[in-house]
Amino acid sequence: MALAPRLETFPQIRGSLKFYQVTAYITGVMLLLLCVEMVLKYAFGTEIEFGGAYGLIAFVPSGTVQAVNLSIGILIAHGWLYVVYLIACFRLWTFMRWPFLQLVLLATGGVVPFLSFIVEVNVTRRIKRYLASREAELVEVAD
């Protein structure tokens, strides 16, 4: 028999679901920015410069960045935000008492472009449906 979430953790599940949703969207957007940056760098030999001689934001040849290198900034930001996303996934996975494979699926959302958006919608729908059905069962039992 699979373990079911405890009733006393339902408020924590809702909070961790909200945290997961926010981190999923932020990580997904940062991953898409990272993909664009990688295409610019490796297909076109261009990096993104912020605040340099060519204006506020400029595309310059790789290796010639004189000011702040936004390409590196995007890379670093996605890495750290992915760590926060993994914490959100772990927290949600723990409260829901899912099998380990579900955690792996949640984690892949931050490394496969567009997957975080798809997984987030499915997980949110699944959890909200589950919580509503469990609470409806409790109301029926109480009546």
UniProtKB/TrEMBL annotation:
Pfam families: DUF3817
Domain (DUF3817) ranges: 17-125
Record key words, sorted: Cell membrane, Membrane, Transmembrane, Transmembrane helix
Localization annotation: Cell membrane
GO cellular component: plasma membrane
Signal sequence coordinates: none
Topological type in the membrane: Multi-pass membrane protein
Name of the featured protein: DUF3817 domain-containing protein
